[in-house]
Amino acid sequence: MKEETPQEGPALEPKRGLAEEIMAEHGEDVYRCYQCLKCSAGCPMTFAMDYPPSQVMRMIQLGQEEDLLASKTIWVCVTCNTCSIRCPNDIDIALVIDSLRQKALRKGRHPAKENVALFHKYFLDNVKKRGRTFEGELLARYQLKTGQAFENAGLGLRMFLKGRLGVLPESVSNKKAFREIYRRVEERGGKK
Amino acid sequence: MKTIGYYKSCSLNASSNDYARSLEMCFSRLGTQLVPIEDWNCCGASSAHATNELLGLALPARNLALAEQQGLNPLLVPCSACYTRMLTAADKIRKSDALTAEINEIIAPLRYMGTVQVRNILEILWTEVGADAILRARKHDLGGMKVLCYYGCYLTRTPGVASFDNREDPRSMERLLQMIGAEPLDWPYKTDCCGAGFSLIDAPVSVQLCEKMYDMALELGAEAIVATCPLCQTNLDVNQDKLRKEKSAPYKIPVFYLTDLIGLSGGADFGNKLWRKRFIDPRELLSRYALA
């Protein structure tokens, strides 16, 4: 009698969806979320979000990556960490939202809140130049670009008159060596 | 005189230079000299960790390496936003050999061995300066001034790292202010968010977050709010000014740094130079209590 050999099927690969990626890269297990909604109840920013944090957790479990990367939520979160410290399953939710924002940028997705993305970019450009922020230059550049220069000019002027805006930029002693940090981070794609 | 290392960061160097002055004068009244990290850099604030995880760890790590090299341990980080970034980086690096190696490749030729203890202002006052030093330095009593302690987000909320005080209902600032004769009132917003950097990105968001705090302060009959973070202090101060102008709101509650009041109690003479830098002028209140 001929022996039956088990039929060769497609190899069983472990699923690697969005939740698995976040687990591998940031060590946060989003599958632990059981929708108690504590994060959303305590979040101070839900009024400006399209998906509250608990829904973000569910969407990650379901792999709805593109909807999340296009969401306002990832740009509105201020990382106040209220959700992270209250989560009964110890998920660092704010860090998970950080990871989505970082992913959206890496994949070149259009940010739903352009101004926030622009501010972060200008801020980091500003630091890269000298190792320290030069607030006057940063705010002038950002506000001119976003058309807020007029409404904020009064505040800027008052800060200046109060001696609270540096006139000359300060820098670290070796700017070239400092920029190496940025270069080496970019070399690694910004990921641990 | 005892010395303590500190991270005199971007905001303390420019837009909140009044905080640096208040801190340094207050600590000197308590017999402690603050020594800034030499050649420090920006910690990357929200923008680094928000957009690039590795940069958000490498920028604080450069400061930690410098502090370690310069023997500044423990390290006081007065700005709460810098504090949580430095604490997060120190903690993650300490817990992972792989990350330590990677960060050291990035910040080379500097090298961080993972020894620096990152501390906020309340921890430093309680454990390094010592509450007894505050008691001994007392020259003036705050006469029962009704104050609200505002901790904001980052003094007690760094995920993954044990907090020095209760995360949701900290009391360490109230206890210090009681020692110098103030009357801290209980209120529900002590660890709420002021909007932080959103005051620069999208100002109305920050105004909205602060407005309910002012209403509560008025309802409770508070005379002042006390903060420890330059961003919190500035937002709480400037947003009142905005609401006064835009909505004719009645808010006129001075927002102090904790070191303003401990300094005043210890006899520091801050003078008009300091108070003029604030948007809601505290001098009327201070003169009512014979403190200015």
What does it look like?
The complex is a heterodimer of chains A (192) and B (292). Chain A folds into two domains: 18-106, no CATH class; 114-187, no CATH class. In chain A, 55% of the residues lie in helices and 0% in strands. Chain A contains eleven helices and no strands. Chain A has helices at residues 18-26, 38-42, 53-61, 65-69, 73-76, 82-86, 93-106, 114-130, 135-146, 149-161, 175-187. In chain A, helix 8 runs antiparallel to helix 9 (135-146) and helix 9 (135-146) runs antiparallel to helix 10 (149-161). In chain A, 34% of the residues are buried. The model of chain A has no long low-confidence stretch (mean pLDDT 92). By secondary structure, chain B is an alpha/beta fold. Chain B has two domains: 2-119, Up-down Bundle (Glutathione S-transferase Yfyf (Class Pi), Chain A, domain 2), CATH 1.20.1050; 131-288, Rossmann fold (3-Layer(aba) Sandwich), CATH 3.40.50. Chain B is built from 14 helices and eight strands. A four-stranded parallel β-sheet of chain B has the order 2-1-3-4. In chain B, strands 6-5-7-8 form a four-stranded parallel β-sheet, sandwiched between helices. In chain B, strand 5, helix 8 (172-179) and strand 6 (183-184) form a beta-alpha-beta unit. Chain B is globular, with a radius of gyration of 19 Å. Chain B starts with a strand and ends with a helix. The model of chain B has no long low-confidence stretch (mean pLDDT 96). Chains A and B meet through helix 6, helix 7, helix 8, helix 9 and helix 10 of A and helix 3, helix 4, helix 6, helix 9 and helix 10 of B.
